[in-house]
């Protein structure tokens, strides 16, 4: 169900303030095994990422097998206990395709199914909240997300991390050397999406944002000559559950940023726990175009490895806590086409400036052209460069 024809080297998370910025990779993931017995409830949970994922996949498959309808018959030929994890995931994906098919009509009560899978998601999160490593990650966070959320927020809401991702990262890197660990934290090889990109709106999304982001989706589709199309799926209990366990890659569109300094944040490329979070303060097509650009695999233009040939970063004018958002991407990252100062993925000249109220350009600007002048900031439509680049990714 997930195509992996093209790999894009990218940072794991990004966010925007009149633009966007990458995740502080030295925050949530550099966790050490804690000897302190931090507890949310009475019982500590020490299951690994794979163990938790396998447990909840089994719960879902057992539930589906016990249904009287045909949906379970696709994988009923083999006992769940005899299935490999890959076979189980394939079964989950097959069920997901069926449940999201317009021709599929459930013989069960949809409300009852939503209640069951909403309960399983809640149980999963409660179990994660009892894991010492997740507890430690929460302690290092903004603590703005409710405990019952799957997401941990950092840096004032500009970095969103799944609690499952915390455990996955630790499990995948616990037997590797330090050099490999560091590299895996900072770079993420992500696959491009297939021909159909599924997304769902959370309960927080207003009708205004729905209309605005759909306009942005259409502009990206058109720019790519419709090599892909966005398809809305229901915000059902099943879709929430399979997103939470990382078995169904789709974009979770939310409107949950309370920080007026941030316009939105988004994950890069086709990854599990994909997010596109838009602030209520910035429901504009340009913001949505920018965030969806990240979802499609595009990086920040001002962070390209070759950016110093075209622009100058004024480090002394940047707020200290945001300087990491101006770091240059590794040469391992992939940039498409020539540098485009008009790109929808470009920061403004005053992004994260210490001195936004001054008229002195030497103090005000955080990014300038090589000649020291500022530039027109594009947050209206895709540039010609953006259109060319998306065609290169989605051929």
Annotate the secondary structure layout:
Layout: E1 7-10, E2 13-16, E3 21-22, H1 49-65, H2 85-99, H3 110-128, H4 132-139, E4 151-154, E5 159-162, H5 163-173, H6 178-186, E6 188-191, E7 196-201, H7 207-223, E8 229-232, H8 237-244, E9 251-254, E10 264-267, E11 275-278, H9 285-295, E12 311-313, H10 361-364, E13 367-369, H11 384-393
Parallel strand pairs: 7-8, 7-9, 9-11
Antiparallel strand pairs: 1-6, 2-3, 2-10, 4-5, 10-11, 12-13
| Series of H and E elements | EEEHHHHEEHHEEHEHEEEHEHEH
Largest beta-sheet details: 7 strands, mixed
Percentage of residues in strands = 5-15%
Query: Which assembly state applies to the chains in this document?
Result: single chain
**Can you tell me the CATH superfamily of the largest domain?**
Collagenase (Catalytic Domain)
The number of E-state strands comes to 13
**CATH class descriptor name of the largest domain:** Alpha Beta
Put simply, the count of helices is 11
Sequence stretches where pLDDT stays below 50 over 5 or more residues = 1-40, 178-189
Order of strands, widest sheet: 3-2-10-11-9-7-8
Q: Cα-atom Rg, whole angstroms? A: 22 Å
Mean pLDDT across residues? 82
Overall number of domains: 3
Helix content: 25-40%
Terminal CA distance reads: 18 Å
């Amino acid at each position: 169900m997930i195509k992996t024809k093209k790999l894009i080297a990218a940072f794991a998370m990004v966010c925007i303030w009149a633009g966007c910025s990458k995740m502080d990779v030295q925050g949530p993931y550099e966790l050490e095994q804690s000897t302190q017995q931090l507890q949310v409830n009475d019982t500590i949970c020490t299951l690994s990422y794979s163990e938790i994922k396998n447990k909840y996949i089994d719960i879902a498959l057992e539930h589906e097998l016990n249904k009287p309808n045909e949906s379970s018959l696709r994988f009923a030929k083999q006992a769940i206990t005899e299935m490999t994890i890959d076979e189980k995931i394939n079964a989950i994906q097959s069920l997901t395709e069926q449940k999201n098919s317009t021709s599929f009509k459930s013989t069960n009560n949809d409300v009852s199914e939503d209640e069951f899978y909403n309960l399983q998601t809640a149980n999963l999160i409660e179990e994660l909240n009892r894991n010492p490593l997740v507890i430690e990650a929460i302690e290092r966070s903004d603590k703005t997300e409710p405990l019952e959320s799957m997401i941990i927020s950092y840096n004032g809401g500009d970095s969103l991390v799944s609690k499952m991702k915390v455990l996955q990262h630790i499990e995948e890197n616990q037997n590797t050397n330090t050099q490999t660990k560091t590299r895996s934290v900072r770079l993420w090889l992500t696959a491009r999406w297939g021909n159909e990109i599924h997304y769902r709106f959370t309960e927080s999304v207003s009708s205004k944002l729905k209309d605005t982001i759909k306009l942005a989706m259409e502009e990206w589709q058109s720019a790519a000559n419709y090599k892909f199309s966005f398809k809305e799926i229901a915000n059902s209990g099943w879709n929430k559950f399979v997103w939470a366990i990382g078995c169904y890659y789709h974009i979770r569109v939310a409107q949950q940023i309370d920080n007026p300094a941030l316009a939105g944040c988004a994950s890069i490329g086709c990854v599990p726990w994909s997010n596109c979070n838009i602030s209520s303060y910035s429901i504009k097509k340009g913001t949505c175009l920018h965030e969806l650009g990240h979802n499609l695999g595009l990086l920040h233009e001002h962070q390209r490895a070759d950016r110093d040939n075209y622009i100058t970063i004024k480090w002394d004018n940047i707020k200290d806590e945001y300087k990491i958002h101006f770091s240059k991407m590794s040469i391992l990252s992939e940039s498409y086409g020539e540098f485009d100062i008009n790109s929808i993925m470009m920061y403004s000249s005053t992004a994260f400036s210490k001195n936004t109220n001054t008229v002195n350009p030497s103090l005000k600007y955080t990014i300038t052209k090589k000649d020291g002048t500022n530039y027109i900031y594009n947050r209206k439509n895709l540039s010609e460069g953006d259109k060319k680049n998306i065609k290169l990714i989605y051929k």
